[in-house]
User: Which sequence fits this backbone?
């Protein structure tokens, strides 16, 4: 063998690196913490990984040694109960040691788990921003609770958080059980009909992250994502101000026609657009739809074309979701898309 | 009756006794006699084969899921079909394969290992098999007709409730639970009675093989755990069919009640699957190490401790539901504690191998694979027991990886080892050792290639139970790897089936005791005669067949009546001669009417009432006293 690593070794380390990178980074990765809670949990993960890895290694060594020893042994008379074996005593002592090791290890791990859990529960809450999240099949309603009702911001399938400030989420479900989870920021919490749960997230790194429903919630459980963005305090304030504004009034004839189709058709009975008569509450609030990065709870990145395809038939993108297909001529479809696309 | 050394009887004498016992215990070749049989070996064989068929079916579903997940945004299978497929995979594996096949192995082996002529309550045993079969057929027919359940094997409400899961799909699921639980409870009762009262004379509790201990603990666990899920599924079905509101929060019900009831059963269920496998491992390790098990008493205590602790940790499935956090810590501790008995047993087996004289035949290979895989699964279990870590890993592919390591590693590997180990006893022929090695290595490699990447996928954010996933999250290559591994497992199981088919016709003839094992099932011919043992064996040591000197037997059971010997619970002293039930077709009729009853109630709640009438008639027929002559002598002379 040469001193240089062989191709094979290089390939191996490349694979190992890929695995590590895949597991440890990403915008929906538990081990790439961007917030206090995820970072605290990662400490526990590291402790667990080392201790459990050590125990596993011990088992493999003992097993390997037992098998290696066996290579000389020739078959002979069986050893029944009661036969005096010279190895019995050392094995018993080893067993006692093993027992002590397991118990000691478990004590360390339970205490570690307990204290990490306590530190999560005792996180600082001052100046926390309060957000109410309501899950429904298969989308997220997100409401920023302000000092007064007029300061309340309603959006859907997106969550913007200011960096460094705790966010206290109030979690509810409208229909079945869902689970709220943004791995980069922290652990998950279920949303259960008839109950109110809460979750605290303290983001520390600006960036775009992705959350996803983690409790099986029916047909489109797979396509119930949440777009999470951590921004600076000033950007956040600007965004919030922008979200407080009523919707843009239609400005071109095409948009105007789209507006009329929306208001006269079935759309307005389920969706709200602040500043217009549309005040439906069954579906996502669309006041600033075009400022979001995804449509249909993360099913597609936002674009004019994606929105148009969605409006043409929501069931090709997300089969079985609760938005009915509305028959529209091509020109009506284009007009409606133009109007919605203007809702920045 | 008395313990005697076997006389040296003439060949003619043996042949005559054999013929008479054959007449008393045998099952004829006619269709009717086959349907009426109460022979535990025939019922057990059917049970094992049916369970294995369900294993293969659920495995095919797994391959379909892996094909779908091989690439992102796959449109091969739609969401509705996919949800049915993963529900049926879990349901079939847990309810129709894992628990039944472990009980099935016990139905075959426990009476032989106890040295008795038939299982206790043999008609209940036949009934149990039929009920299980009909329940399995019902749910699979429903699935093939596109009315298969689609709310997961755990059927969380309100998703599985009347509002969000209309139609009959979940009703079939809930009744399938009823079928399999009735079957499982029946077998559990038989096994407890058999192990407690029908052990061979001299097989005191401290001489009981660990397989019997594990089945005893398992059966007791079934008796305690199963009623919880029957209660839950009855609540569910009455919510769905007659408009009760057990789980409806608007009317004062509670969605979490379901989870408590389900997991109070669901977690012990894992150990109900796992403990019999531990018994199999102990049998195989003892035989192939040719050494008595190391620290026997501790191994028994570990089984008992696992059985008790298993009931104290169901809440670790519910850490994300928002239960009080301090309370959750208790379940963290309880969940971690279960690593103690498991760790001690692992030590016991390796120590036995270490000090023994291991022969590396296929059964032992599967046991070594079991240790390597199961320990890893156990350690990820310790990780999941910690509340904070669980909040990240819960309901992700990390958990999928964890429980496949525990269940395939902890139960399926030992089960395959057990197939290789006891196949000669079941059939009289050995499985091919060469194919066995291929079977093992393909399974072992395929398993790790399939499931190890899932740990990383889960930490990389991939949730469970998704029918597809978007590109760009870094999940593609690991999913592809996992799918390739699944294919290897498929090939390996196919090799096993080929091995069985070939060996049945052309395998080496096994003889009574091909592995020179120590337990009583090897003291009779392979396959065993209908009456199991010509004379009841007498046990004089922990490893009954390794005790030097001639074997003792006990005479005195009537060769012309179906009788079994009952012994005392602790010391296994001969107690009384108990008549054993004759073949009867009533169990079959009772099972058919039970099936009609359960299935009818899915379509019309009134069937609960009228459906019970035919069942009652069958039960009366079943229990009608038919003994032509009263037993003259029950006690011992």
Assistant:
């Amino acid at each position: 063998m040469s001193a240089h690593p062989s191709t094979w070794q290089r390939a191996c380390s490349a694979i190992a690196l890929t695995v590590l990178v895949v597991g440890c980074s990403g915008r929906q990765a538990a081990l790439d913490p961007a917030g206090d809670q995820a970072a605290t949990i990662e400490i526990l993960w590291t402790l667990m990984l080392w201790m459990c890895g050590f125990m596993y290694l011990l088992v493999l060594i003992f097993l390997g040694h037992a098998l290696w020893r066996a290579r000389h042994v020739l078959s002979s008379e069986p050893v029944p109960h009661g036969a005096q074996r010279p190895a019995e005593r050392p094995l018993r002592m080893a067993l006692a040691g093993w027992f002590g090791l397991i118990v000691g290890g478990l004590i360390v791990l339970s205490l570690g788990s307990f204290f990490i859990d306590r530190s999560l529960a005792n996180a600082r809450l001052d100046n926390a921003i309060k957000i109410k999240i309501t899950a429904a099949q298969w989308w997220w309603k997100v409401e920023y609770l302000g000092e007064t009702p007029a300061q309340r911001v309603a959006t859907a399938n997106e969550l913007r958080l200011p960096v460094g400030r705790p966010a206290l989420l109030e979690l509810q479900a409208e229909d079945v059980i869902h689970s709220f989870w943004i791995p980069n920021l922290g652990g998950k919490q279920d949303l259960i009909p008839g109950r109110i749960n809460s979750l605290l997230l303290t983001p520390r790194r600006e960036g775009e992250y992705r959350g996803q429903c983690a409790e099986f919630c029916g047909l489109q459980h797979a396509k119930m994502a949440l777009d999470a963005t951590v921004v600076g305090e000033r950007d956040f304030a600007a965004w919030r101000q922008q979200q407080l504004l009523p919707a843009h009034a239609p400005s071109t004839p095409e948009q105007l026609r789209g507006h009329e189709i929306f208001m006269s058709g079935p759309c307005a009975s389920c969706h709200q657009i602040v500043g217009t008569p549309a005040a439906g509450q069954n579906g996502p609030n669309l006041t600033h739809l075009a400022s979001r990065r995804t449509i249909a709870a993360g099913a597609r990145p936002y674009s004019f074309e994606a929105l148009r395809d969605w409006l043409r038939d929501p069931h090709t993108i997300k089969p079985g979701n609760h938005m009915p297909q509305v028959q529209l001529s091509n020109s009506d479809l284009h007009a409606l898309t133009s109007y919605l696309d203007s809702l920045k | 009756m008395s313990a005697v050394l076997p006389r040296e009887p003439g060949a003619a004498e043996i042949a005559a006794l054999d013929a008479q016992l054959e007449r008393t215990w045998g099952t004829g070749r006619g269709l009717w006699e086959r349907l009426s049989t109460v022979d535990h070996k025939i019922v057990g064989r059917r049970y094992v084969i049916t369970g294995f068929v369900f294993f293969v079916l659920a495995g095919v579903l797994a391959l379909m899921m892996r094909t779908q997940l091989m690439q992102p945004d796959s449109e091969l299978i739609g969401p509705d079909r996919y949800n049915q497929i993963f529900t049926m995979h879990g349901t079939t594996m847990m309810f129709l394969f894992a628990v039944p096949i472990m009980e099935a192995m016990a139905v075959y082996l426990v009476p032989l290992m106890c040295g008795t002529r038939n299982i206790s309550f043999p008609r209940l045993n036949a009934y149990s098999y039929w009920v299980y079969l009909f329940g399995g057929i019902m749910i699979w027919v429903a699935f093939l007709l596109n009315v298969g359940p689609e709310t997961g094997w755990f059927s969380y409400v309100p998703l599985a409730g009347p509002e969000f899961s209309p139609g009959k799909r979940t009703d079939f699921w809930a009744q399938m639970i009823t079928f399999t639980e009735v079957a499982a409870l029946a077998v559990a009762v038989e096994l407890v009675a058999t192990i407690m009262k029908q052990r061979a004379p001299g097989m005191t509790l401290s001489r009981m093989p660990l397989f019997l201990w594990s089945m005893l603990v398992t059966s007791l666990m079934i008796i305690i755990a199963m009623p919880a899920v029957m209660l839950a599924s009855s609540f569910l079905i009455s919510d769905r069919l007659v408009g009760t509101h057990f789980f409806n929060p608007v009317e004062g019900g509670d969605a979490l009640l379901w989870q408590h009831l389900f997991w109070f059963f669901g977690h012990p269920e894992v150990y109900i699957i796992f403990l019999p496998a531990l018994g199999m491992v102990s049998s195989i390790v003892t035989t192939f190490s040719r050494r008595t098990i190391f620290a026997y008493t501790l191994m028994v205590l570990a089984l008992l401790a696992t059985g008790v602790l298993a009931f104290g940790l169901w809440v670790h499935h519910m850490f994300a539901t928002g239960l009080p956090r301090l309370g959750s810590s208790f379940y963290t501790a309880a969940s971690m504690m279960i690593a103690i008995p498991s760790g001690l047993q692992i030590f016991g087996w390796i120590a036995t191998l270490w000090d023994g004289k291991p022969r590396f035949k296929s059964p032992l290979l599967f046991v070594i694979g079991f240790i390597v895989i199961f320990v890893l699964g156990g350690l990820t279990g310790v990780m999941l027991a910690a509340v904070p870590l669980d909040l990240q890993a819960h309901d992700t592919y990390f958990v999928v990886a964890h429980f496949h390591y525990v269940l395939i590693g902890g139960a399926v590997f030992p089960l395959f080892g057990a197939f290789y180990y006891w196949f000669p006893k079941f059939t009289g022929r050995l499985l091919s050792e060469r194919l066995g090695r291929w079977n093992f290595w393909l399974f072992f490699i395929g398993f790790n290639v399939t499931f190890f990447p899932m740990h990383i996928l889960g930490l990389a954010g991939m949730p469970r139970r998704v029918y597809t996933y978007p590109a760009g999250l870094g999940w593609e290559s690991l999913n592809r790897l996992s799918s390739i591994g699944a294919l290897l497992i498929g090939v390996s199981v196919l090799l096993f089936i080929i091995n069985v088919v070939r060996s049945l016709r052309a395998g080496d003839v096994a003889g009574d005791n091909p592995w020179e094992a120590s337990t009583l099932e090897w003291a009779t011919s392979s396959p065993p005669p209908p009456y199991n043992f010509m004379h009841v064996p007498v046990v004089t040591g922990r490893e009954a067949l390794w005790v030097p000197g001639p074997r003792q037997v006990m005479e005195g059971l009537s060769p012309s009546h179906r009788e079994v010997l009952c012994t005392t619970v602790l010391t296994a002293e001969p107690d009384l001669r108990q008549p054993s039930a004759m073949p009867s077709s009533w169990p079959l009729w009772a099972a058919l009417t039970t099936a009609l009853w359960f299935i009818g109630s899915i379509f019309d709640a009134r069937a609960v009432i009228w459906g019970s009438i035919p069942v009652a008639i069958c039960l009366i027929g079943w229990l009608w006293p038919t003994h032509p002559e009263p037993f003259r002598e029950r006690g011992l002379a």
Observations:
- The beta strands of chain B are 2-4, 536-537, 553-555, 563-567, 574-579.
